[in-house]
Structures are given as C-alpha cells and as structure tokens.
Design goal:
By secondary structure, this protein is mostly beta strands. Helices cover 0% and strands 56% of the residues.
C-alpha cells in the first residue's frame, strides 16, 4: 500500500528553524507533484508550498522567503526547510503527492497523517 509519512516536526523558539521530511513508500510507479499544507487551530487548511515535477514552485505569501521546498526523487521524498519561524506558523503540517501506484493507470492524491510544528518561547 502506498503511504506518505512526515517527520521532523517539533517545538522551536521564534526565529528558529526546522526541516520537515515526507517519504513515500510502497508500490510506487511514479510521483509527479509533491506539496506541503498546514492547518492551525481554528483556521482553514491552507497551501504552504507546492512543487510539480517540472515548472514553477508555488509558496503561500506568508512563508515566501522563509520556507524552501525541495525533493529527492530517488528517495521519493519531499522536504520543507523552515527558517525564521514565527508563532503564527504553528500548525499541523501535511504533505501530499500525486502518485501512480503499481497496477494503476492514473494519478491519485495521497496524504500523509501530519506532523506538529509548534513555535513558542
């Protein structure tokens, strides 16, 4: 079964940094787009960064210049480097990806279960 698993979340002080990882596993044929989303308490789910296999990467305006998305296709992994973290960045961060699984002829959107990021003194 195809899965996406996030790691790297935790507690960090304002101004600090974290690097999130999301690794795909299972019977994967190919991965196209990969991205990061987040949801803070009382707020709507929102895009953080999105990275297609080719073309332009998209960032939420609030994180542009502070966060960087990257990927290692050989490892089926997407990363989110988060610098200059602010309390308002506190949220559960989810990765997702458009993946073709073994035995399928179409891309399906898979989601990870999330990793908590807390920015506080």
């Amino acid at each position: 079964q195809v899965q996406l698993v996030e790691s790297g979340g935790g507690l960090v002080e304002p101004g600090g940094s974290l690097r999130l990882s999301c690794a795909g596993s299972g019977s994967i044929v190919s991965i196209n787009r990969m991205g990061w989303y987040r949801q803070a308490p009382g707020k709507q789910h929102e895009l953080v960064a999105d990275m297609p296999s080719a073309g332009r990467t998209v960032y939420h305006e609030d994180v542009k210049g502070r966060f960087t998305i990257s990927r290692d296709n050989a490892k089926n992994t997407v990363y989110l480097q988060m610098n200059s973290l602010r309390p308002e960045d506190t949220a559960v961060y989810y990765c997702n990806a458009d993946i073709v699984a073994v035995g399928s002829s179409y891309e399906y959107l898979y989601w990870g279960e999330g990793t908590q990021v807390t920015v506080s003194s």
